[in-house]
From TrEMBL:
This is MALT1 protein. PROSITE patterns: CASPASE_P20 (PS50208), IG_LIKE (PS50835). One of its GO terms (molecular function) is cysteine-type endopeptidase activity. The gene is Malt1_1. PANTHER family: MUCOSA ASSOCIATED LYMPHOID TISSUE LYMPHOMA TRANSLOCATION PROTEIN 1/PARACASPASE (PTHR22576), PARACASPASE 2 (PTHR22576:SF27).
């Protein structure tokens, strides 16, 4: 109804956008307003609906929207919206999770605003709590079992739920409270961290639990220095290396008190010395003497075998043009640079830009089809927005909402688990993204246990709870990580040694010192390198992989179109990425009585990302792509160029119209002829990622 009222009115959606933009977070950019206005060209498009979607993703409330309509003086629109606002129930105070001592009482609170006569009902799990019908719930914690609580607020048939709150009950004992200082009344440590001895590749878990009022906060220290991103009761590091050895302690504090846990030692060494285990599973190739005498039967060291891959495959994803988040510049340049270098190392490379959640998942699924036993698969490079929660890394697709969670993103550890099932020889993850904590996401994903394969390498562009930056250089913009990575990528070095050199180089950059530093995590036990040769296991397996890879790289063949007026047009194609194609048209023959003619593309499928301002341009540079100097080398001169993005969205074969406009000698008016062209499913569209 609002769309009908605001789409075409003088006091319409543009005025609404102007008034809503008075608050900075609701302000729409020029590009976003243009996107809204272009909706009128769609059969059922609505600029107002597009604007409302933008405001909704930025958490604009109905009350704020109603206030904007009132300032517009649009009484009819106000009446439509005010009836909806009156029925809205909003939680203003959410219940908080707590850790309490056994035998004490705890209070949970939930407050809401809305129409008169709000009714509260508390639940423990799925069961109603009898008599718990007020905003405050008082719980007797006589039993040590932890429980989850939630509150429902309703008025008639309209209702909403609060967040879940977990009440964990701890038993207090003299041993568990050994770090408790009597002078710090109101804050007590119930569970102390314990010393441990681990092998490289194990998971380090330290835990410190406390109770207090206000609720306690935590900060972990290693060697008496605070650790970034370690502000939870449980501190966990997966795939530990010797870099994690040291003395650990936890600083527990609240608004009024503070207390320190006991300091414990974490030792990282070789694996457990079980003589029944094969020697190469116990120690790395660089340290064979860490095994027992039974593992090393003779003094002579056997020659190292020449390592080879059955194939080498890489998936490169760069997300730039986010719908609801800051736009990025570097991924297009970084993905292209990395792809070109990996091709020199005989990698099969699939490079994709600007993927939505479903498209990212399908791209990973197709990537997995290229993998098999012994394949150096796993080069997965991702550049874009990201975050890290509870030790898991998440890649953010371009359609993620403003308050995204793990539900809207791809978990890197889940991808690794699927790669392990393919029995790959080397799994490399290069994650060029931020690793800040996502405060909107409190869900711990259940990834499952990873296999012990000693072939995993993680190269993070930055440390935990830190950001990754872009480096502007003239027209091109590189990420800091790839700026230094491409210097070393072709070196014949073990991949971990190569990344160490990249880390050293990054440390020399003054502008990011103290803000961004490469982090390497690895359990690689052999000297695996990106330069290792390829030795296919069998013709059938190799051919199947080659066919699957080739599907994503086949361009339509160049063709000539003959028009009734006697003009012949060449239609040519070039690939910028696996999902971005350049189409160019060129006049190759024309009758003498035709003085001017040109061929333009029209009627391009709506599902593709085609900017009308970047079609039918007289020079490659006008397309707005920083890579134009690269792909235009193979294109003829005197052409009109169009850039077609998002080929993974193609739902059917790519068909468009070539519109020829020409003028005869001595005439002022142009004549027009059209031909419909179908070029099938080019590049990544062949894989049907939809």
């Amino acid at each position: 109804r609002l769309c009908e009222l605001l789409d075409n009115a003088g006091r319409g959606w543009r005025k609404l956008a102007e008034l809503a933009g008075a608050e900075k977070r609701f302000r729409c950019s020029v590009e976003e307003l243009e996107m809204c206005s272009l909706k009128v060209l769609e059969p059922r498009g609505s600029p107002t609906q597009c604007l409302l979607q933008l405001l909704a993703e930025r958490d604009c409330t109905l009350r704020y929207l109603l206030g904007c309509l009132e300032r517009m003086g649009h009484e009819q629109a106000c009446r439509v919206l005010s009836s909806a606002v009156q029925d809205v129930i909003r939680i203003t105070v959410q219940p908080e999770s707590q850790v309490v001592a056994e035998g004490t009482q705890v209070s949970l609170n939930c407050c809401a605003t809305g129409p008169p006569g709000l009714v509260y009902q508390w639940f423990c799990g799925r069961q109603e709590v009898p008599g718990a019908t007020s905003p405050e719930l008082v719980i007797d914690t006589a039993t040590p079992a932890g429980q989850w609580y939630i509150c429902r607020v309703n008025c008639g048939a309209t209702f909403t739920f609060s967040r879940w709150a977990h009440v964990q009950v701890e038993k207090s004992s003299p041993s568990s409270a050994s770090g408790y200082c009597p002078s710090m009344a109101g804050l007590q440590i119930l569970r102390q961290p314990r010393p441990c001895r681990l092998a490289e590749g194990d998971t380090l878990v330290l835990e410190c639990r406390a109770i207090g009022n206000p609720p306690p906060q935590y900060q972990w220290f290693r060697n008496r220095r605070p650790m970034e991103g370690a502000q939870a009761p449980q501190f966990q590091v997966k795939l530990v290396t010797t870099a994690e050895r040291g003395s650990y302690s936890c600083h527990v504090f609240n608004l009024f008190h503070e207390v320190w846990s006991q300091e414990v030692d974490v030792e990282i060494g070789e694996g457990p010395r079980q003589t029944s285990v094969t020697p190469h599973l116990l120690c790395s190739q660089e340290s064979p003497h860490g095994c027992t005498s039974r593992c090393v039967p003779s003094v002579a060291t056997p020659p190292s075998p020449i390592l080879a891959a059955t194939d080498k495959v890489a998936l490169l994803i760069g997300n730039m043009h986010y719908l609801y988040h800051k736009q990025l510049q570097a991924p297009i340049v970084d993905v292209h640079a990395l792809g070109a270098l990996l091709c020199q190392l005989n990698f099969k490379v699939v490079s994709l830009l600007d993927l939505r959640k479903a498209e990212m998942q399908m791209a990973v699924n197709e990537f997995l089809l290229l993998l098999d036993k012994g394949v150096y698969a796993g080069l997965l490079y991702y550049a874009g927005h990201g975050y890290e929660n509870f030790g898991n890394s998440f890649m953010v697709p371009i359609d993620a909402p403003s308050a995204y969670t793990s539900e809207h993103c791809l978990c890197v550890q889940q991808v690794l688990q699927e790669m392990q099932q393919r029995r790959t020889g080397l799994n490399i993850f290069l994650l060029d993204m931020c690793r800040k904590r996502n405060l909107n996401d409190d869900i711990i994903p259940q990834v499952g246990a990873l296999e012990v394969t000693a072939n995993i390498v993680f190269g993070y562009a930055t440390c935990a709870d830190a950001e990754a930056y872009e480096l502007s250089q003239d027209e091109l913009s590189n990420g800091i990580f790839v700026t230094f990575l491409k210097r070393w990528l072709l070196e014949d070095e073990k991949i971990t040694v190569l990344l160490d050199k990249v880390a050293e180089d990054m440390g020399t950059l003054e502008i990011t010192r103290g803000r961004q530093a490469l982090e390497l995590r690895s359990n690689l036990s052999e000297r695996r390198a990106l330069t290792d040769p390829i030795r296919p296991p069998g013709q059938d397996e190799s051919s199947a992989r080659n066919l699957q890879w080739a599907k994503a790289h086949v361009l339509p063949e160049s063709q000539h179109l003959c028009f009734d007026c006697g003009v012949t047009i060449q239609l040519g194609f070039a690939a910028e990425f696996s999902n971005i194609m350049i189409i160019y048209t060129r006049v190759v023959a024309a009758p003498k009585d035709i003085t001017k003619c040109e061929a333009r593309l029209t009627d391009i499928p709506e599902e593709l990302d085609v900017d009308l301002k970047c079609t039918n341009k007289e020079s490659p540079e006008e397309l707005g792509s920083p890579l134009a100097p690269v792909w235009s080398l193979g294109c003829p001169s005197c052409c009109l160029y169009s850039r077609i993005c998002g080929l993974q969205k193609l739902q059917q074969e790519l068909a468009f119209t070539v519109c020829l406009q020409y003028r005869y000698q001595g005439m002022d008016d142009f004549v027009e002829e059209r031909q419909r062209v179908n070029v099938g499913r080019p590049l990544i569209a062949k894989l049907n990622l939809q």
